[in-house]
Each structure stands twice: as structure tokens, then as C-alpha cells.
Design a protein that fits this description.
Order of helices and strands: HEEHEEEEEEEE
Helix content: 10-25%
Distance between the termini: 68 Å
Number of strands: 10
Strand content: 35-45%
Strand order of the largest sheet: 6-1-9-10
Structural class: alpha+beta
Number of helices: 2
Number of domains: 2
Radius of gyration: 28 Å
Length: 167
């Protein structure tokens, strides 16, 4: 009799535990983003131009260096910062100047930004400057997109083509 009560008690507590786990598995409901919104993600990594251009060393400079350090070209490692702007329907939603990564500031500059927008038709303009120019931009994406609710539009930069794309 004691075994029957013990097994019945265990079954009762397992049933209560299963009901609690089942309730929390479906409640509270999680909504990734509102039903009438879409998301634009700007995400890329890019190597900008060098801060100082490479130059050819003179014969005298090469003679002063140890034999294993006699490279013809002297190329400082540091790179320029990258400036990125994003407009949606003429409204500036993102603007940032990103420093190059690494201790020597010689790595890629990385951008990752999530921008929620209302679903519908939008004009998306993304601009990037990776050179020493003071005004204007080196690369521009200007595209009309139709976003449905819960859609994610990715804006990326392709090193091979030197251009933006939206997908």
C-alpha cells in the first residue's frame, strides 16, 4: 500500500511539473517585432584606405636597415576611419564614423545597426566614405524597396565589387 501511495504521489508531482513547464513553453507569447514593422540591418566589415600612402625607400635607407628588413616599399599600417550614413525616406536614421580595429588601427572597420521601420515602400540611401576626402562619399546605395511586415532587409558591402547591395 505504501508503494502505491508513493508512486501516486510521484505521478501527481510529475503531472504538476509537466503542466507548469507546458504553460511556460507557450506563455507569455513572444513577438519579435510589431506586426506592422519591418527591419533594416546594415552589417558589413570593410578595410579603408591607408592613412599614409606607401612610398619607395631610397638606397641609403635600405642600407641602414638589417638585411632581413630591406623591403623596397615602406607602408605604414594605420588605416583611415570609415564614415557611414543611412537615410530612409529622406530622414537620416544612422550616422557614424567607425575607427579601424586592432591595436595598430590596421584592421577592418565594422558596422552593425538594426533599424525598425514601418512596412511598406521606402527609399533607402546608404553612403560610405573610406578615403581621406573631406566631403562627399565614395560609395552610395540608393534603392526603392517594398517591405512586408516582419521582413528583414540586409544592406551589405561587397569588397570584390566595391559596391553596396540590399537583399
Amino acid at each position: 500500500m505504501a508503494d502505491v501511495l508513493r508512486y501516486a504521489g510521484q505521478a501527481f508531482f510529475f503531472l504538476i511539473f509537466a503542466v507548469i513547464v507546458g504553460a511556460f513553453a507557450d506563455w507569455p507569447r513572444y513577438q519579435h517585432f510589431p506586426a506592422d514593422e519591418a527591419l533594416i540591418k546594415v552589417s558589413f566589415s570593410h578595410n579603408t584606405e591607408r592613412k599614409v600612402a606607401c612610398r619607395k625607400r631610397t638606397r641609403e635607407e635600405l642600407q641602414k636597415l638589417p638585411p632581413n628588413m630591406r623591403a623596397q616599399m615602406s607602408c605604414p599600417r594605420e588605416r583611415l576611419p570609415m564614415t557611414v550614413e543611412m537615410e530612409v525616406d529622406g530622414k537620416l536614421l544612422y550616422q557614424n564614423t567607425v575607427a579601424p580595429s586592432g591595436f595598430s588601427k590596421d584592421g577592418a572597420s565594422r558596422v552593425y545597426e538594426r533599424i525598425p521601420v514601418k512596412a511598406g515602400s521606402h527609399r533607402v540611401v546608404v553612403r560610405m566614405r573610406d578615403s581621406a576626402r573631406e566631403e562627399g562619399f565614395d560609395y552610395v546605395l540608393d534603392e526603392q524597396v517594398d517591405l512586408v511586415p516582419a521582413q528583414v532587409l540586409l544592406v551589405d558591402f561587397r569588397q570584390e565589387n566595391k559596391s553596396f547591395f540590399a537583399k
